[in-house]
């Protein structure tokens, strides 16, 4: 659902809420500057920015587009900055675009095109109020305050992903057979998405620090350098975590190979024992087969000798089996 908020900022004063877009146009003509915040807007809702504030139509097209990378575009009278905010809930990473249209007299923010928790921006007014003495200096200081809030939320998401990586590492060590490698592939995809976003955001803020956007003043450059340092640190964190995902995948494969090798060794031991039993009983089976196929008197020498004959035959089989075992042991086949 679309919503709009308009604020009028005057030096060292609390911002005043403006009820209509017409009041925004009147406030722009006076002192201070205005902040126009659009949450989930439509093309019709943003069209007055083109008609009344001189925003380029391509900017509105970018504000309504999807799957764009962070960038900075400079137009006559204003500049367009595309930034990203992160959300992470239920193992799902959400990257939402936050657009800034900045000029000396107004700052426009556009967000909310991706369904996200509403409390993401609930603490933003509190942050602005705490830095009221700074944000009332100009639209560039207000944009920095909003960016700084968004960057702080990025760190929360990165910490959650790091915690998941640590949990995955413990699971691989404790029970590699039960671990699902899809978890590593999911985390790897999240790290690649964050890396792509942070890489381009760092370039955008670098351009702001070089004052490629005319609305960035000398005094606000130092504030944007602080954001640049945070983004650089986050980019390094993501790179380290991305390498950690690769190392964990190698660890998982190594653990699985060790597990399969252990099973193979156990199977070899079983086969070795079965082969030993078969080798020992093979000549005994041959003798018992020959004796079983022969005539009764051929083994006993008569009915009166069967007890002695069969007893001697059984003793001979035991001795032969024992000699066979000793031979295998002497050959070190056992």
TrEMBL record:
<keyword id="KW-0472">Membrane</keyword>
<keyword id="KW-0175">Coiled coil</keyword>
<dbReference type="GO" id="GO:0050897">
    <property type="term" value="F:cobalt ion binding"/>
</dbReference>
<dbReference type="Pfam" id="PF01544">
    <property type="entry name" value="CorA"/>
</dbReference>
<keyword id="KW-0813">Transport</keyword>
<dbReference type="GO" id="GO:0000287">
    <property type="term" value="F:magnesium ion binding"/>
</dbReference>
<feature type="transmembrane region" description="Helical">
    <location>
        <begin position="274"/>
        <end position="294"/>
    </location>
</feature>
<feature type="coiled-coil region">
    <location>
        <begin position="151"/>
        <end position="178"/>
    </location>
</feature>
<keyword id="KW-1133">Transmembrane helix</keyword>
<dbReference type="InterPro" id="IPR045863">
    <property type="entry name" value="CorA_TM1_TM2"/>
</dbReference>
<dbReference type="InterPro" id="IPR045861">
    <property type="entry name" value="CorA_cytoplasmic_dom"/>
</dbReference>
<dbReference type="InterPro" id="IPR002523">
    <property type="entry name" value="MgTranspt_CorA/ZnTranspt_ZntB"/>
</dbReference>
<comment type="similarity">
    <text>Belongs to the CorA metal ion transporter (MIT) (TC 1.A.35) family.</text>
</comment>
<protein>
    <submittedName>
        <fullName>Magnesium and cobalt transport protein CorA</fullName>
    </submittedName>
</protein>
<dbReference type="GO" id="GO:0015087">
    <property type="term" value="F:cobalt ion transmembrane transporter activity"/>
</dbReference>
<dbReference type="GO" id="GO:0005886">
    <property type="term" value="C:plasma membrane"/>
</dbReference>
<keyword id="KW-0812">Transmembrane</keyword>
<keyword id="KW-1003">Cell membrane</keyword>
<dbReference type="GO" id="GO:0015095">
    <property type="term" value="F:magnesium ion transmembrane transporter activity"/>
</dbReference>
<feature type="transmembrane region" description="Helical">
    <location>
        <begin position="306"/>
        <end position="325"/>
    </location>
</feature>
């Amino acid at each position: 659902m679309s919503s709009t908020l308009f604020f009028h900022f005057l030096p060292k004063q609390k911002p005043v809420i403006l009820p209509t877009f017409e009041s925004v146009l009147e406030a722009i003509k006076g002192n201070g500057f205005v902040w126009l915040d659009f949450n989930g807007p439509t093309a019709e809702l943003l069209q007055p920015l083109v008609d009344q504030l001189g925003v380029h139509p391509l900017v509105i097209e970018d504000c309504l587009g999807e799957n764009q990378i962070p960038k900075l575009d400079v137009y006559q009278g204003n500049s367009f900055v595309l930034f990203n905010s992160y959300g992470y809930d239920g193992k799902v990473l959400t990257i939402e675009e936050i657009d800034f249209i900045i000029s000396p007299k107004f700052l426009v923010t556009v967000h909310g095109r991706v369904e996200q928790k509403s409390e993401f921006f609930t603490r933003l007014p509190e942050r602005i109020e705490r830095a009221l003495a700074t944000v009332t200096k100009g639209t560039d200081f207000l944009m920095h305050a909003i960016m700084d809030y968004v960057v702080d939320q990025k760190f929360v998401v990165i910490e959650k992903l790091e915690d998941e990586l640590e949990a995955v590492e413990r699971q691989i060590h404790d029970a590699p057979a039960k671990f699902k490698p899809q978890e590593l592939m999911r985390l790897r995809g999240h790290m690649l998405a964050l890396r792509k976003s942070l890489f381009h955001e760092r370039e955008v803020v670098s351009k702001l620090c070089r004052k490629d956007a005319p609305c960035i003043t000398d005094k606000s450059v130092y504030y944007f350098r602080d954001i640049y340092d945070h983004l650089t640190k986050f980019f390094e964190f993501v790179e380290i975590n991305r390498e950690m995902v690769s190392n964990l995948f190698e660890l998982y494969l190594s653990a699985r190979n060790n597990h399969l090798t252990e099973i193979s060794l156990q199977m070899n031991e079983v086969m070795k024992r079965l082969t030993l039993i078969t080798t020992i009983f093979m000549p005994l089976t041959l003798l018992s087969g020959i004796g079983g196929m022969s005539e009764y008197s051929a083994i006993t020498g008569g009915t009166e000798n069967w007890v002695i004959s069969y007893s001697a035959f059984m003793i001979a089989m035991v001795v032969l089996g024992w000699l066979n075992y000793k031979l295998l042991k002497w050959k070190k086949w056992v």
